[in-house]
Structure formats: C-alpha cells, structure tokens
C-alpha cells in the first residue's frame, strides 16, 4: 500500500476507535458481575478446590493486556467493535481478541476473578493485577511508533507500587506470603521482534519486512535476552517465586507476515525467534537451579503454535492463514478496523482473529495444554502442578 494511503487508514482507525470509547466504558461497568458469573459457570472440570494461588500478576503485551491501553494515548487499542464479539455480551474491553485472552482462561482455571488492568486504578488488588500493555516489549523503545506504551521494566515498577499497597493492606507477614504464593505470568517479546525486523520497520513506516531480508540490528537478540533476564531477576528479588515465562510464538506464520511473504511462513524470522527462545529457556533453567525456591517454568508457545497451525483441522479449525477480521491478502495488510475490515461469521473457524493475534478458541487450546501439558510444551512442571507448589 502507498505510504500516504496507509497513514490515512491508520488515522481513520484512530478516529473510529476513539469515538467508540465512551460507549464501551459505560457498558463494561454494568456487566462486570454478570460476566464473572457466566465465566464461573463455565469453569473447567479439573478446577479443584485446593488453591495455593491467591493471586495472578500479569506482565506483557497484547496477548495478555486486559485493558491497560484503554487508558493510554496510543494506536494500539482494541476497545471497539468488532473486538470482543465473542466476549460476554459482545463487549469490546480492550482485549486484542474476539473473546477471552490466555490470562482469562488461566484465571478461570485457578478459580480467580478476571485480572483487572492496573490502569483502571481499582482497589481490588488481592487477587492479582494485569500490568501488560499492547504494543510493548522488553526493550524500552519497542512500541513507541504506536504512541504511549509501558515497557516491561515500567510494568514491574507498577508492580512495586501494588506490592507496597499489599503490605499496607495486609501487613508484612500476610503480604509476603501472598507475593510468594502468587503466579506471575510473563508474555512478551513479539513486539521487540516485529519492531526490529528491518530496523526502520514500524506499523506506520513505509518499508515492510519480507523474508528475503533478515535485518536485525547488531546485538539485537543479545540485548533482548539480557534485558529479559534482568527483569526476571528483578521480579524474583521482589519476592516472586512461581514465574511462568512464555516464549515468543511463531511470528513468521501470522497473516501479517504471510501477506508480505506470498503466503509462506517467514522462516528467517521464525529462526531468529527460535534462537532467542532456546537461549531464554536455558537461562531460565539455570536461574531455577541457582536461585532458592525459584519455581520458574518456561512455556513453549512456539511449538504449540506450530502444531496447531500444521494440524489445524484436528483442532477444529477450518483455516490456518486468514485473519477473521482483516483486510487484503490473508487479512494481513491492516489491523482489525471498524468499517474497513471484513469480519468472518464464526471467529472459532480461523486460527487467527486479526493480522497478528490468534482467536480466543486458539488461546483456549494453548492454555489447556500448558495446564495439563507434558514437558515439551511446559518445562519442568505444568501449570496444574505449579499451582500446588
Ligand atoms: C522483499 O524485499 C526486497 C527489498 O525491498 C524486494 O526486492 C523483494 O522483491 C521482496 N521479496 C518478496 C518475496 O516480496
Ligand atoms: C497451514 O496448514 C498447511 C497444511 O498442514 C501447512 O502446509 C501450512 O504451512 C499451514 N500454514 C501456516 C501459516 O502455518
Ligand atoms: C494431528 O492430529 C491428529 C489427530 O489428533 C494426530 O493423530 C496427529 O498425530 C497430529 N499430527 C501432528 C503433526 O501434530
Ligand atoms: C463455529 O465454529 C466452531 C469450529 O468450527 C464450531 O465448533 C461452532 O459450532 C461454530 N459456531 C457456530 C455458532 O456456528
């Protein structure tokens, strides 16, 4: 697409999304209790009573942002239709999906309420808080082309503030038990790869990546890894013990990349992601052995995604390459945009909901596998076992 046209479309997305905000917020409050009731009714069978996990704290990007970006001045927002068409009452909450996110499925399995966004500023912090911000990454600059964003280090700063509030609410003993028994879910890194794949690339830039030209800046993967490990160490130092780190998924196979690569998965991008993932996993496993009581687990979302994509009909999907809500070839040319986008009639038939995000049904499959999974998807213990530690 021509740069000028692309900018115009991005501006239109921004205008359309902002005009829908007010409707969304009013609707959201009214139905919150109702939504929780319906979700609790759908709890999975193997959700037991023993709950060693008082709270779920969440860090990351759009895969787990339950609504923080609604409060930011950014193009990375999803609080407008058709986002949320499969959410309770079809409400667009800011989640980048047709319905629930992985963090929601996990909260339900744990018997916890849906995790509230930190920037909603609510008082209920006892069951967890979501610090994630769509478009953000591990590196400070990742996401700046969308506007305001909260990098991982700042998300952890926000956790420090919540931790202080927990200490004054509960007292030192109870608060430190809560902090050490809670689950910490980290899903981040995708945007670091996208933003740095061809250094000048961004959502509003004029040059697009394709798989003939792998151009990461020098030391990109090393920097990403060392920043990530630093933040994990920081979380541990703050008292976190049960930390789930999710690797970067198969980014080369999302409609956005298929659109730029004649329908083929971008294998150089996938290779770079896999190199990073395996170094990340190695580091996590050595932190696990060197740090006392560090119950760190690594979730292999790359292989999980690849398996679902390669065998999509066995998982109940009809399409493994087209965004349900999108535009252009594979629906991968533009974000899901009101008015402009084509929207499929049943989002559960496509693995992908929009140009970069899977649909909620795909997220559900992934979370079920991490919950029950064998070591090749979640190492060294699955989430069900981690909960009981
Ligand atoms: C990839 O990008 C290069 C440089 O912009 C271009 O010459 C090439 O034709 C593109 N390849 C594909 C498969 O689109
Ligand atoms: C979709 O499935 C086909 C058949 O299994 C496979 O060849 C193709 O690579 C898959 N597409 C993506 C984007 O993973
Ligand atoms: C695909 O799914 C079928 C049915 O569940 C299974 O038998 C087969 O091993 C799977 N293949 C791959 C490559 O995952
Ligand atoms: C949507 O598609 C899924 C997967 O193919 C199917 O299980 C479900 O019944 C469909 N829903 C409707 C309302 O057709």
From TrEMBL:
Keyword NADP belongs to the record: no
Gene3D superfamilies in alphabetical order: SGNH hydrolase (3.40.50.1110)
InterPro entries: GDSL, GDSL_Est/Lipase, Lipase_GDSL_AS, SGNH_hydro_sf, SGNH_plant_lipase-like
Protein name: GDSL esterase/lipase
Keywords: Hydrolase, Signal
Organism: Ceratopteris richardii
Coiled coil segments of this chain: none
Cleaved signal peptide residues: 1-26
Superkingdom to which the source organism belongs: Eukaryota
Molecular function terms, GO-annotated: lipase activity
Protein family: Belongs to the 'GDSL' lipolytic enzyme family.
BP GO annotations: lipid metabolic process
């Amino acid at each position: 697409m021509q740069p000028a046209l692309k900018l115009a479309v991005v501006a239109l997305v921004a205008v359309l999304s902002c005009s829908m905000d007010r409707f969304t917020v009013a609707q959201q409050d009214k139905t919150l209790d109702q939504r929780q009731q319906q979700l609790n009714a759908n709890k999975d069978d193997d959700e037991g009573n023993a709950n060693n996990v008082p709270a779920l704290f969440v860090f990351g990007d759009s895969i787990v942002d339950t609504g923080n970006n609604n409060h930011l001045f950014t193009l990375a927002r999803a609080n407008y239709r058709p986002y949320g068409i499969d959410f309770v009452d079809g409400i667009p909450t800011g989640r980048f999906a047709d319905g629930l996110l992985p963090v929601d499925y996990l909260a339900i399995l744990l018997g916890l309420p849906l995790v509230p966004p930190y920037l909603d500023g609510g008082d209920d912090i006892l069951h967890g808080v979501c610090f994630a911000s769509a478009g953000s990454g591990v590196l400070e600059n990742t996401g700046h082309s969308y506007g305001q964003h909260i990098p991982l280090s700042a998300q952890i700063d926000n956790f420090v503030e919540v931790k202080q509030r927990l200490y004054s609410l509960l007292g030192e003993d109870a608060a430190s038990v809560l902090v050490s028994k809670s689950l910490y879910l980290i899903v981040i890194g995708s945007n670091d790869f996208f933003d740095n794949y061809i250094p000048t690339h961004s959502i509003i830039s004029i040059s697009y990546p394709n798989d003939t030209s792998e151009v990461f800046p020098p030391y990109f993967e090393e920097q990403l890894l060392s920043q990530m490990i630093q933040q994990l160490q920081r979380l541990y130092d703050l008292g976190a013990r049960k930390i789930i780190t999710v690797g970067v998924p198969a980014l080369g196979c999302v409609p956005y990349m298929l659109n730029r690569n004649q329908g083929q998965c971008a294998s150089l991008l996938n290779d770079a992601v896999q190199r990073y993932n395996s170094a990340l996993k190695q580091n996590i496993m050595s932190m696990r052995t060197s740090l006392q009581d560090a119950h760190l687990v690594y979730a292999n979302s790359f292989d999980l995604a690849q398996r679902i994509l390669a065998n999509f009909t066995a998982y109940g999907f009809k399409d493994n390459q087209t965004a349900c809500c999108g535009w252009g070839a594979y629906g991968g040319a533009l974000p899901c945009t009101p008015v402009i986008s084509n929207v499929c009639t049943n989002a559960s038939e496509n693995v992908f909901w929009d140009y970069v995000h899977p649909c909620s049904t795909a997220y559900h499959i992934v979370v079920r596998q991490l919950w029950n999974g064998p070591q090749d998807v979640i190492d060294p213990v699955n989430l069900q076992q981690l909960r009981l530690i």
